[in-house]
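As the next step, I selected for study a record pairing a protein sequence with its backbone structure tokens, which the following lines show:
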Amino acid sequence: MTDTSPAATEVALQRLLMAYVFTGLIFLLLPGTFLGVWNLVSISDRHSLAGLSPSWLQAHGHAQIFGWIGTFIIGIGYYSLAKMGRLLPFAVSSGWASWALWTAGVTLRWVANITEWNWRVLLPVSAALQLIGCLIFFATVSGHQPRPAPGVDRAAAPPPAKIETWMKLVIASTIGFLLALLMNQFETIHLAMTSAHPEIPHWLDQRYLFLAAWGFPVLAVWGFNARWLPVFLGLRKPSSGGLMVALCASGSGIVVALFGGFRLATGLLLAACIVAAIALKVFQHSEKPAKTRGVSASFPYFVRGAYIWLLVASALGVYAAKSDTNGGIWGASRHALTVGFLATMVFAIGQRVLPAFSGMRLLYSRKLMFASLALLNFGCLLRVASEIPAYEANFHVAWTTLPISAFTELIAVTLFAINLGVTLVLPPPYPAVLAQSH
């Protein structure tokens, strides 16, 4: 018989989360960062994007957004919702089914884009596997029910409270996630039927990236930040009204971008980012001391720095929509978003919460945490500062700086993966039953 004790359930959830984390780290290191470094070195040698297969660039982007960040978010979603509410009987088995389908889908996408072996079959199949894995996740978390207070009979419990603002943002990001995967499915089928290579056309890829980046991980980060930053950084309670305004502005910007109105879309997204930063109060003085026990004391500064990168990314997007000619401004904007904002946030928050979620572990090294965050931000600064003069003005020094930025970020990613990997491999300090009570 299956052991359904609290300790056994906690162990099962921890194993599930750790599987997602390790899988995400593999996608981050190999098809994500390593392929990105390879691409950038090739571009720098040529001083041009010409000659580099767009399918390789798209494979790198897909591995970063879906293979790494998407895998982390699904795993954290399964674990955190199970801890917050009544665990459905099939939640753990559904989590493993999602993991198997999702991992296979992302892997096949990478293989199809890089090798082009049987890509007309592999590309649509990979998209279908990812979509089904996400649908299982969506169906499971949709059946989540809040856990009643101890000693309160569920039948006699009061009606459910209104959905909190942070959860609305997470729900919106999940919808954006599904829409991006649906668009990915239609794209891959269309490519298989009409294209000579597994390359999404530039005009369509430009629209797709707005949905994949702004409509999914950014909203998820805002939602989880609204939930966790008042605790971790001692910030004041976020403004619910402000966050809903930011959600509406970003949603409107994404819709406009899908119709090709990039100037208006980037303006709306810039406004959304400004409002979100104000609503989350990330640049205001903290009411309480930040909780940095067990992590780098610089943790709050990097979290705030991530929002500076978000504002830079959105401002560069406005600039790109008006003035980009060779892809340099768009590239700098996307790098500031994906590495400066999203990766910095994952490096900071991830090393804060994932060890605790995985059996109340302690982070292996605070020094490695600081080093990974510092190198990541330094590499991102080099990349964003050099990409525009390199691509747009063919400035020689900028071309030579780009590979340095890439290898700096590769070292940062490696340190992050080592620190988190060792943390999860080492035995937890508490038995499962104690971790479950925490």
The chain has two domains: 1-145, 233-238+281-438. The chain is about 75% helix and 0% strand. The mean pLDDT is 87.
